[in-house]
Amino acid sequence: xxxxxxxxxxxxxxxxxxxxxxxxxxxxxPRIDALVARAHELRVPVETADRRHLDKLTRxxxxxxxxxxxxxxxxxxxxxxxxxxxxPPLLVVLDxxxxxxxxxxxxxxVDAAGATGVVRQARHSAPLEGAAAKASAGAVSYVKxxxxxxxxxALDELKTLGVWTIxxxxxxxxxxxxxxxxxxxxxxxxxxxxxxxxxxxxxxDRLVSIPMAGAVSSLNVSVAAxxxxxxxxxxxxxxxxxxxPGPRDESSR
Length: 253
What we know:
Layout: E1 2-5, H1 7-15, E2 19-25, H2 30-41, E3 46-49, H3 51-57, E4 66-70, H4 78-83, E5 90-95, H5 100-113, E6 117-121, H6 131-135, E7 145-148, H7 151-160, E8 164-168, E9 185-190, H8 198-203, E10 206-208, H9 221-238
Parallel strand pairs: 2-3, 5-6, 5-9, 6-7, 8-9, 8-10
Antiparallel strand pairs: 1-4, 2-4
């Protein structure tokens, strides 16, 4: 079981019927009352606690008066993510993203863009519950996630499945909007500050950057991921390409 907290995260988990126990403060307001009523409808155990107990339970997280134990999110393989994509797969691969706020924001953008899912490493990655779930505004209940042992090997596997791997690197000379995202694509993003690890960057088919016009040299990783995701959405809506992963044509990029 995992613990999540915050109104959006708990509401979406309740909607997805993942909640196994609800904990709330008394007199939390109409939105919490609605969650409690829904929990009773679904026969989910409900516990009333004082704010100090909830603070301790969430490790001083911004819980907004409510938390929930939830079933673990479904686990997917890379094959399943690619095979179950509604069109050409659009994935985000997380290389050592350990900040839960960044992870949650990326999950929210993946859901908003209608992307296929996320690939993360079992180690060197923020957990999907707690602060990440809250920052995702509930998207963690809907985004498909594959957890792998090694990111570089996962990229090689994605290549064999017909997916192009595009790494975001502030030092790259190619622009992010010069890529044809209508093809099956995995966007690879690295940790704040350090960026992509060397072997991960070398394994990518192509490295691209987002041009900066101001004094700051780069964007927050979650913002950068959102920029590229919605460029992919724009391209796919304006210039649709054939569905499905298909063979990798080296001239396509």
